[in-house]
Design brief:
By secondary structure, this protein is mainly α. The protein contains five helices and two strands. Strands 1-2 form a two-stranded antiparallel ribbon. The chain is globular. The protein starts with a strand and ends with a helix. This is Pre-rRNA-processing protein TSR2 homolog. Keywords: rRNA processing. Belongs to the TSR2 family. Pfam families: WGG.
């Protein structure tokens, strides 16, 4: 039996739910989606967006230190700049990072 909310699915494997939540969240980020659709990262822009989701999941799951939203903002900023040659200055990086942090905390606490 599963329970769902907009951020995560609580079931047998929390890691898979977190990955799905990250991917869904990034698919709604206009800045990233514009970069992918316009291939600002080259022909493999879609693959680069998938790698960003994997990198975020790794950051959440492998960090030994307390998680800090500023570190996630830096990860997003560097990925957009290096992978897509895109400087995002509309405040969406900070918004996406904050929302991902909330989603991660909700999933960890089993809030549903």
């Amino acid at each position: 039996m599963e329970s769902t909310n907009r951020n995560c699915v609580v079931a047998s494997t929390q890691g898979g739910r977190l990955q799905d939540g990250i991917s869904r969240h990034l698919s709604q980020w206009n800045g990233l989606q514009m970069a992918v659709q316009n291939q600002w990262g080259g022909r493999d822009s879609h693959q680069k967006s998938l790698q960003l989701a994997a990198d975020i999941f790794s950051w959440f799951s492998e960090s030994k230190a307390p998680l800090c939203v500023e570190d996630l903002e830096n990860l997003l900023h560097e990925s957009m700049l290096l992978s897509f040659n895109t400087e995002i200055e509309d405040g969406s990086i900070e918004q996406v990072a904050e929302e991902l942090m909330i989603m991660h905390e909700d999933c960890q606490q089993g809030n549903h």
